[in-house]
Each structure stands twice: as C-alpha cells, then as structure tokens.
C-alpha cells in the first residue's frame, strides 16, 4: 500500500492567475497554495449558459483529492432562432428539348460499337 511508504513532503508553492478575454468568451481563474503536505485551491470557469462554476479543492498524500463544486448565477439560454426552411434546390431535370441533337449522317445504329457511318475500309497501308 502507498500509505506504508515513507512520506516525503513536496515543495511549498503558491500561484494565482485569471483570464478575462471577452473577444473569445474565455473567463476563468485558478489559485492554489501548498505547505508541502497539503494543497488547497479554487478554480472558476464561466460556463456558456452564463453561470460560473466554482471548484474548491483540498488534496494531500494521505487522503487524496476532495472537491466541492458550486454554481453561481442563473442559467440563461438565448431564444431559439425562428425556423427558416433551406432554399429550394435549383431547377429539376432539363427539359428534353434542351439536350444537343445527335450528330447527323451515317446511320449505323445497331449492333454495338456505336459510332457514326458505315465502315469504308482501312486507310492506305492496311490495318
């Protein structure tokens, strides 16, 4: 068990920072301090619904991490935008008269191979 291992105290510390950035809607802060054995701290985050989440915590080597989470303010949500159906897709299929006419001459329809007129022989020099 980790409790049977000898406890070596950590380095004492203290810090504090805050971000207040209305352009990117980023509002949060964090502070913590430690005597080397126990860390106490708090962080705050402004949530998208307008409330502020506040987490206060204590952590030490013997009992672990313990947090208390609270919320300040009232959640508010913008009214939904009125429904607007997407625009209709452009036109349907083109009318039959709008396709180009097949090339004239030759005949030669059936049988496969497609193409226009009848076979008239190989050019000079053979196939």
From TrEMBL:
**Gene Ontology MF term list:** structural constituent of cuticle
Domain of life where this protein originates = Eukaryota
Q: Where is the composition biased (Pro residues)?
A: 77-103
**UniProt biased composition (Gly residues):** 104-127
UniProt KW keywords? Cuticle
What transmembrane ranges does the database entry give? none
Instruction: List GO terms (cellular component aspect).
Output: extracellular matrix; extracellular space
The segment annotated Disordered runs over 72-127
User: Which InterPro entries does the entry link to?
Assistant: CHIT_BIND_RR_consensus, Insect_cuticle, Insect_Cuticle_Struc_Prot
This protein's name: Pro-resilin
